[in-house]
Amino acid sequence: MKNIIKLLCIGVIFCALAGAGTAFGETVVIKGSTTVLPVAQGAAEAFMAAHPGVNISISGGGSGNGIKALVDKSTDIANASRFIKDKEVKMAQDNDVYPVPHRVAMDAIVPIVHTSNPVTGLSIEQLSLIYQGKITNWKEVGGSDLQIVVVSRDTSSGTYEVWEEQVLHKEKVTPRAQLQASNGAVVQAVSKNKYAIGYIGLGYLNSDVRALNVNGITASNASVLSGAYPVARPLFMFTNGWPTGTTAEFITFVLSPKGQEIVKKEGYVPLY
Amino acid sequence: MTRTQKEKIIKNVFFLFALVSILILGLIVIFLFMEGLPIFKVVSVKDFIFGLEWYPTYDPPSFGIWPLIIGSFAVTIFASIIAIPLGLLSAIYIAEVAPPVIKEIFKPVVELLAGLPSVVLGFFGMAVLAPWLQETFDLPTGLNIVNASIVLALMAVPTISSISEDAIYSVPQEFKEASYALGATRFETITRVIIPASLSGVSTAVILGMARAIGETMVVLMVAGGAAAIPESIFDSVRPMPASIAAEMGEAPFRSDHYYALFATGIVLFFLTLAFNLIADYISNRFKEVGSATL
After folding, report:
1. What pLDDT is attached to residue B141?
2. How close is the nearest chain A Cα to the Cα of B191, in Å?
3. Cis link prior to B60 (omega < 30° from 0)?
4. pLDDT tens digits along A149-181
5. Which residues pair with B238 in a beta bridge?
């Protein structure tokens, strides 16, 4: 839900900007991952406040759509919560586009359960078996005698891809898993269901659900940065070639201490 | 300008508008097929439709949408079971039984239901109905076929009720008068005269209501649970086709096999709703003769 509301807000802002902004010169277009969206939005607001002539328009739509827009040359910056795929690189090159990744933040992916669940932590191995549908009752991992309801992001989301790689080790998620379309929806589903387990980006963690330790390690900025927390990923902004002009200034701003402060405020892990 | 010239201009303007809308629709269909058909180079039509596994992003991927088709049918059928009696009975009540004052209130209220944005209904299903279902029936999850069907039924009721009501209302007054003159009760008049006479409109209403349920996206995305497995009970989660398309399209790489597979799912959905509409059309023609001249 959080995502949908955010998208609506962005839509409204975008329309307002499209109307008012044409009078000014510079426009930077940003599209892509809804995971990176809050960072881009926060940074854009601060950047525009500091550079009155600049107009930044941001929309979500997913990593795939962002990269597609970069390939079509319809965006200056593509947000992605995953690295670009070989096929996308090839398509880009065919279109005379040379994508350059800029790592702007780190994100941890945290398994979450209902607040009443007595389980406090799981190992990667246990998580993997739960998500493959091989462990089906909480009592097998030290909880109460309840069936486990597996909540997952849909298989094409960037968050899922990281989970698949780092937890499932490329095994298939059980077809009985409930697939939710956004981080917010996973939180919503798990917060209402004492049987459920889900996973979300660190930025979406709130008091409605409880985070589990993974291999005994709690997800935090420090444990992600040190590499101790086992399920983490970098977040990217892609540009066509090395950025120049306002686009370069914007990316530099995101990487600056001020920009990383915004990363932190939005709930992600800053790079330093 | 003479009258005939004016007539001609008006006729041409209407023709032009009709042509433009048909053209746009045609282009959309062509686009749908252009983007969907390439998947059949990777997987056969039979494996695509009857395949049991939907793992579009794995290596190697499986593109079987049978669980999604079953999911769509499951929620549509159960939604219809709830919505048809509700819609029909409320239509009969509004058209024939209710005193004018109540009718003036009920009709707009039912139609107001149609105006509720589906995301609001979805939110209701997610935040209110799901925990209630889970609690009451002691289920592992409240996001299941029953929940989705109830919310979809709420959406289909106004369609069914409003179209049926128009059909029932337009049954000529002489029929009712003739029926009462023969000594029939109000109940007999409704079941033996009014319903048969309005059957064409009523069945169209029912099928359009079902078509609405099968194509609805937001509700099934939010409350059906999204499990791409063939359900074993009505309390299992399912992943209807529109939910799958909506959830995955944003992240599917452009013109990848996954992207084509989602468009191909759209083609299947297109044929299903088309079939529903053709059936509605057929039924409304089939029973059309039942007019005041023949009865």
Report:
1. 87
2. 44
3. yes
4. 999 987 777 788 889 989 998 888 999 999 887
5. B225
pLDDT for res A21: 41
For B54, name the nearest residue in chain A, comparing CA atoms only: A175
Q: DSSP string covering A255-267, please?
A: HSHHHHHHHHHTT
B58, B237, B252 member nearest A172 (Cβ): B58
Q: Report d(CA B131, CA A125) in Å as an integer.
A: 30
CB B256 to CB A189 under 8 A? no
CA angle B138, B144, B149 (to 5 degrees): 115
Residues 64-83 of B with CB under 8 A from A: 67
The alpha carbon of B8 is separated from its chain's Cα centroid by a whole number of angstroms, namely 38
Residues of B in contact with A4 (CB under 8 A): 119
How far A71 CA lies from chain B's nearest CA (Å)? Answer: 10
Count chain A–chain B contacts defined by CB atoms under 8 A. 107
In this predicted complex, what is the ipTM? 0.73
- Give which of A202, A150, A158, A190 is closest to A66, Cα–Cα: A158
Query: Is residue A11 pLDDT above 60, yes or no?
Result: no
Which pLDDT score is estimated for B289?
A: 52
Strand blocks (E) in chain B: 54-55, 62-63
Q: What is the DSSP string of B68-127?
A: HHHHHHHHHHHHHHHHHHHHHHHHHIIIIIS-HHHHHHHHHHHHHHHHS-HHHHHHHIII
What pLDDT, on a 0 to 100 scale, did the predictor assign at position B2?
Answer: 84
Mean pLDDT of A128-153: 93
Which of B251, B254, B257 to probe by mutation at the A interface, max A CB count within 10 Å? B251
- CA pair distance B231, B75, nearest whole angstrom: 11
Put simply, the answer to whether A156 touches B143 (Cβ < 8 Å) is no
Mean pLDDT over the full length of chain A: 87
Subunit contact B251:A176, Cβ cutoff 8 A: no
pLDDT at A180: 85
Cβ contact A161–B67 (<8 Å)? no
Strands A55-61 and A99-114: unpaired
With a cut of 60, say whether residue A199 has pLDDT above it. Answer: yes
Contact A154 B58 (CB under 8 A): no
* Residues 6 or more apart whose Cβ sits within 8 Å of residue A155: A164, A173, A179, B55, B56, B57, B58, B248
pLDDT in tens, A221-271: 899 989 899 999 899 999 999 999 999 999 999 999 999 999 998 889 999
Question: Is A156 in Cβ contact with B252 (below 8 Å)?
Answer: yes
Please tell me the distance in Å from A214's CA to the nearest CA on chain B. Answer: 24
Tokens 């209110």: give the residue.
Answer: B128
- Nearest chain B CA: its distance from A195 CA (Å): 6
How far is B129 from A254, CA to CA, in rounded Å? 42
